[in-house]
Amino acid sequence: xxxxxxxxxxxxxxxxxxxxxMAEARDSADxxxxxxxxxxxxxxxxxxxxxxxxxALLKRDYSISLNRDFRGVVAGCADREETWINDTIFDLYxxxxxxxxxxxxxxxxxxxxxxxxxxxxxxxxxxxxxxxSQRRDASKIALAFLVDHLNRCGFRLFDTQFITPHLxxxxxxxxxxxxxxxxxxxxxxARAGFLADVPIPxxxxxxxxxxxxx
Length: 214
Prior knowledge:
This protein is of the alpha+beta class. It has 8 helices and 9 strands. Strands 4-5-6-7-8-3-9 form a 7-stranded mixed sheet, sandwiched between helices.
């Protein structure tokens, strides 16, 4: 697909249809659509907090924010040797963010951004796009707070696109394309608000609400 035909509106229509965009590499000129036969999701009632993640959460040597530095999170996700985030995708998600459809959760060490995750929202579905970590466990901490936030804001689907070993340790699973489409249809009919008036909790609250701690 040529970049000139790809707009934020088309991107939202694609998410609603169950597909998402990628580029071959940072320097690729074109973007293509992906519709996996097996789809990764992170069940919002099945997030797994291991003992090591629990210890990392309780250290409290970090702070959490929402939409404080969306550009910085996307840049952090793209700052790796191999990435599917080219300039077209970078700009499109900034446009979606400004339009209120893309959001980020950041992890900070003082004034330094050390991790985060970003994604797109439609209805009660959160389409997780990417995450990054510049300190051990920072991306896991981000996901723990994100899952807690999505639950409190009424979301019903956390789409991770694919399943990595990292996500599998946190409770991520694969489902068929048909099963995903059914869950997506239900989530799109519901309503949730990423920026709902819910305060950012402390780690102890996140742990107390999570029923999968081991």
